[in-house]
UniProtKB/TrEMBL annotation:
It comes from the Eukaryota. Residues 964-993 have a biased composition (Polar residues). GO terms for molecular function: aspartate-tRNA ligase activity; ATP binding; nucleic acid binding. One of its GO terms (cellular component) is mitochondrion. Keywords: Aminoacyl-tRNA synthetase, ATP-binding, Ligase, Nucleotide-binding, Protein biosynthesis. GO terms for biological process: aspartyl-tRNA aminoacylation. The gene is CSON007057. PANTHER family: ASPARTATE--TRNA LIGASE, MITOCHONDRIAL (PTHR22594:SF5), ASPARTYL/LYSYL-TRNA SYNTHETASE (PTHR22594). This is CSON007057 protein. The lineage of its organism: Eukaryota, Metazoa, Ecdysozoa, Arthropoda, Hexapoda. It comes from Culicoides sonorensis. Residues 508-924 form the Aminoacyl-transfer RNA synthetases class-II family profile domain. Belongs to the class-II aminoacyl-tRNA synthetase family. Type 1 subfamily.
Length: 993
């Protein structure tokens, strides 16, 4: 009969789960207070019962060791996230964080840090167990927590994660501060919660590697063990285990401490066994022993909170001293049995890979081929322990003259210097950011030294050789440190250093991956052909300002293309019916956070298609290339007409993530005829803010007034409904717009006390544009004040039916809203041929908008040469000879076609959650259009001027300054002119015949 006790009924009765000859049952064991009388009764057993006790010993009073067979229900699907990557995109998700506690507040808030940044943890007030745990964990402990991401009531804008916090539901693992040997005064028991806190690896650690002193047999035995001394918990009670380690001689007696590189476990030996007793007496500090036995639970009074396995002990059945000279002849574990506790992260996507992949191994295949390294600094893990490796990278940190970290574009690895090499190499004398080549052996770190915030935090490389490939300057202009980052002009000037930051690495690798997936879908799934078109082309009238490129032919210039528009249309004529390219484009315009003088776009065109099919194609391209860390896209994207977007959002680039739509109050305002005088196209739009969010801070009010000044054809009004609606109707606003208007506004808008009404009236388009900006400013202010949580989701929409033409600066002239090759809407062709109500003619143009920013624009093109000539010559009044090459192409048999261009830089900036497209471009221009790295644009030499037949004419204001200062200032004039050139001031260029 085999038996396990399963339930204590009372102080005298214990039920035991038994199996005898295949039959299951219950034994009721009754005892007296002194445990010296036992009466056994048999019962039938419901096999659904779980839980057991084991009793050991004789009729004397014994300790009963509890076996907890209860397994907690599995948690919801969990996503492992770095602390610094926690943002609003994870709101509502169940995530896992691992980091070091750096701050505790009020007994319910903790801040933890990893290599990516800081995240705030919260223990809910209705969870007293979690509150107690928060208050008991000391600073500098490493913890693993699970919980739900929620918005902060009061955002902390000083850190990237300041808009969210993690409401902790479970703490799975707490590693308290400990010394190099895994013990010491700061070591405490790891919290024993619903899940076991087992180490992620059982391979040899650096401490064990030193201890075995080169023994191959001991090394193989440690690498092939199934259990370590530091991983046993109450959940393991009842298991038969085999442990390998060394004994602390100070603990000799019945209870000994068996230690290895992962921790220690108390073992209980039988002093009456002469063989075991003799073996124990023979051991010394350098002896390795093998222990076999059963795990049992300690009585409550004997639990030891000084170390992590203090809830259990091992009853020794076999005790053997190991000979380091003998080879290991036991079973060999396959390498694939070693798995990471946490799933690895993809560098570009910041997403979880499958558990079969090595932690943080780059997805780029074979990145170590054709190089002098064996591995990157970001891919080594537990499976590599024992390997001889060669790493190359930048010296990042050094500490204690014994450790340093080596960094490359894939991650970083800790290197440990043996004592004999430490004095010889003097690593502290090597400047940071020097290029090193490191050779060494991969070893596991002890549990207390494992850094879960690093992808390679479970290992370190024991150095055997180091070469300095290139020593850096002792003081670089930029320090590669996440805190106290340099200002942007300095970052741009030393961009080659700035690119080493992890966020720049991630952004550029994300960019590469997105472009690759775009190409992959268009070529392999949609049959497109990638064609490179010229950058040097001719001037295109009617578009943006272009860069002029001189030629050796006097008086003749190229222009850098502002887009491949005409060229791709001619490809359609040439039967390249599905074209695309990643095109570089140029526009001589002022730089902004979302604009550069040279930029990149996904440019495509296809024949025999229509607007809906092109829009569907782009949706599929974006779904295919969309990074996993940005979440999934829902298709089809919403579609708005231009008129609808202007009426509801006051812009043709609407941010539809939040409501607060504009309200058309034109009819109410028109009740006062005086208000619409002088406006041919009158309109009025309003934004209503309901109480209690209707406060209007002075700074916000000033900002709104400054916005209103930019729209001179409108009148902007802010009015709060105080003290109540009835008195407001007769109040100060009545003197401005009249009582009929205020009554109508109160009725139509259902105004209530303390509401805030903001509206503009006058020119319809300007009123809509003004209130569109007011809408956005109000929302941003509410987010800053904590009324709303910033929405970091991704919301795309299409805007259709744009006007074909807009009124020009001169009265009676018109300009293309998009470009002259955009096809008119077929329903408005009668207006075009009659040449009446031209601003009402719609086009077949469409824009793609993401979070309030235009990221793409396209249209169906004109393929009829007569219609194209009508628009260029008769409506736009442009010189038709400038387009003869285009018209000839259309007359040569041009199919119906259309296309679109996506702004890659803007798209990537939104994906990567950066404020400027400069952060997703390797070498961007500065805010003033200047290249801070090369100092371009620069003056050219006299020889170059002569070669290209150009003459520089000094601007008049500089000439006047020289004249006033007299002849002695000719040198000053030259310097002033050079300064103007370098700062990008427009020069007058004159061709010499």
């Amino acid at each position: 009969m085999n038996g396990l006790l399963c339930k204590v009924v009372n102080r005298r009765t214990i039920l035991s789960f038994c199996r005898s000859e295949g039959n299951f049952g219950i034994l009721s064991l009754n005892t007296n207070e002194k445990y010296n009388e036992r009466i056994v009764t048999s019962h039938k057993l419901d096999t659904r019962n779980q839980g057991a006790f084991i009793m050991h010993g004789n009729n004397k009073r014994q300790r009963n060791s509890f076996i907890d067979f209860y397994t907690p229900p599995p948690p919801p699907d969990v996503l492992s996230v770095k602390c610094g990557d926690l943002w609003q995109g994870y709101l509502g998700m169940y995530v896992r964080l691992r980091g070091r506690i750096v701050k505790a507040r009020l007994g319910r808030f903790l801040e933890i840090r990893d290599s990516r940044g800081i995240a705030q943890l919260v223990a809910d007030d209705d969870n007293p167990r979690m509150l107690r745990m928060f208050q008991s964990i000391p600073i500098d402990s490493y913890i693993t927590v699970y919980g739900i991401v929620r918005s902060r009531l009061t955002p902390n804008k000083s850190i990237p994660t300041g808009y969210v916090e993690l409401h902790v539901e479970d703490i799975r693992d707490v590693d308290y501060p400990m010394d190099e040997n895994g013990s010491g005064p700061n070591q405490r028991r790891r919290l024993n919660t619903s899940a076991p806190a087992a180490p992620v690896s059982r391979t040899v650690t650096s401490i064990e590697f030193k201890k075995i002193n080169g023994s191959k047999g001991l090394l193989d035995r440690l690498n092939n063990r199934l259990t370590t001394c530091g991983e046993l918990r109450s959940i393991d009670v009842g298991k038969h285990v085999t442990l390998v380690g060394w004994i602390d001689r100070k603990k000799h007696g019945k209870f000994l401490h068996l230690r290895d590189g992962y921790g220690q476990t108390q073992i209980v030996i039988d002093n009456e066994n002469p063989v075991i007793k003799q073996t124990v007496a023979a051991i010394n500090a350098d002896s390795f022993v093998l222990v076999k036995g059963h795990v049992v639970s300690r009585p409550s009074s004997n639990k030891n909170t000084a170390f992590e396995t203090g809830d259990i002990e091992v009853l020794v059945e076999e005790f053997q001293m190991l000979d380091p000279e003998l080879p290991y002849d036991g079973p060999i574990l396959p390498q694939n049995q070693v798995q990471s506790e946490t799933e690895p992260m993809d560098i570009a996507n910041n997403t979880v890979e499958t558990s079969q992949q090595q932690k943080s191994a780059p997805k780029t295949p074979k990145v170590n081929t054709f190089t002098n390294r064996t591995h990157t600094c970001g891919e080594l893990g537990d499976k590599d322990i024992g390997k001889e490796v060669v790493l190359c990278g930048w010296l990042e940190f050094e500490r204690m003259r014994k450790f340093f970290t080596l960094r490359d574009g894939y991650g970083c690895t800790q290197i440990m210097l043996p004592d004999d090499l430490g004095e010889k190499l003097r690593i502290e004398t090597i400047p940071f950011e020097s290029i090193l080549q490191v050779k060494g052996t991969v070893m596991g770190r002890p549990p207390g030294m494992r850094n879960e915030t690093m992808a390679t935090g479970g290992i370190e490389v024991i150095l055997s050789d180091l070469q300095i490939l290139n020593k850096a300057k002792s003081k670089l202009p930029i320090e590669i440190r996440e805190h106290n980052r340099a200002k942007e002009p300095l970052r741009l000037e030393y961009r080659y250093i700035d690119l080493r930051f992890s966020d720049m690495q991630k952004n550029l690798r994300t960019r590469s991956k997105v472009l690759m997936k775009m190409r992959e879908y268009l070529i392999n799934h949609a049959g497109f052909v990638e064609v490179e078109t010229p950058t040097l082309f001719r001037r295109s009238p009617g578009g943006a300002q272009e860069f002029v490129v001189p030629s050796r032919k006097p008086g003749h210039f190229y222009s850098l293309v502002q887009s491949p528009q005409q060229l791709k249309q001619m490809l359609m004529v040439g039967a390249i019916d599905r074209y695309f390219q990643i095109a570089r484009c140029y526009r001589d315009e002022a730089t902004r956070p979302d604009r550069q003088p040279e930029f990149t776009q996904l440019d495509l065109e296809l024949s025999f298609s229509d607007r809906d099919k092109i829009m569907e194609l782009i949706e599929k391209v974006l779904v295919n290339c969309w990074p996993d860390f940005c979440g999934a896209l829902n298709t089809p994207f919403p579609r708005l007409t231009y008129d609808q977007a202007m009426a509801d959002y006051g812009t043709d680039k609407p941010d539809i993530r939040f409501a607060m739509k504009l309200i058309d109050i034109t009819q109410a305002i028109e009740l006062n005829p005086e208000l619409k005088e002088g406006h041919k196209n009158f309109g009025s739009s309003a934004v209503l803010i309901k109480f209690p969010h209707s406060s209007l801070p002075n700074q916000l009010k000033e900002n709104l007034n400054n916005i209103a000044k930019q729209y001179p054809k409108t009148k902007f009004v802010t009015s709060k409904i105080v003290p109540d609606v009835s008195q407001w109707i007769e109040g100060g606003l009545t003197r401005l717009v009249g009582q009929d208007v205020t009554k109508a506004l109160s009725s139509e808008l259902h105004l209530e006390d303390n509401d805030l009404l903001l509206f503009a009236y006058g020119d319809k388009e300007q009123s809509q544009l003004l209130m569109g900006r007011v809408r956005v400013a109000m929302r941003q202010s509410m987010e800053v004040r904590g009324i709303y949580t910033p929405d970091t989701s991704f919301s795309l929409c299409w805007v259709l039916d744009f006007p074909l033409l807009s009124e020009g600066e001169k009265e009676g002239t018109f300009e293309s809203v998009h470009h002259p090759f955009t096809a008119p809407h077929p329903d408005d062709m009668h207006l075009l041929h009659a040449q009446k109500d031209l601003p009402k003619i719609r086009s077949l143009a469409y824009d793609l908008v993401l979070n309030g920013q235009e990221i793409g624009g396209g249209s169906i093109r004109i393929h009829d040469p007569n219609l194209q000539k009508l628009i260029i010559q008769d409506l736009l009044k442009l010189d038709i000879t400038e387009f003869n090459h285009m018209l000839d192409a259309l007359r040569s048999g041009c199919p119906p076609h259309g296309g679109i261009a996506l702004g890659i830089d803007r798209l990537l900036a939104i994906m990567c959650n950066v404020e400027s497209i400069r952060d997703v471009i390797a070498f961007p221009k500065g805010f003033d259009g200047k290249d801070h790295l090369s100092k371009a644009p620069m003056p050219i030499t006299e020889a170059e001027k002569e070669l290209y037949n150009i003459e520089i004419k000094v601007p008049e204001k500089v000439t006047e300054k020289v004249t006033e200062t007299g002849n002695s200032s000719s040198k000053s004039a030259e310097i002033t002119n050079t300064s103007l050139n370098e700062s990008g001031t427009t020069e007058t260029i004159k061709a010499m015949s």
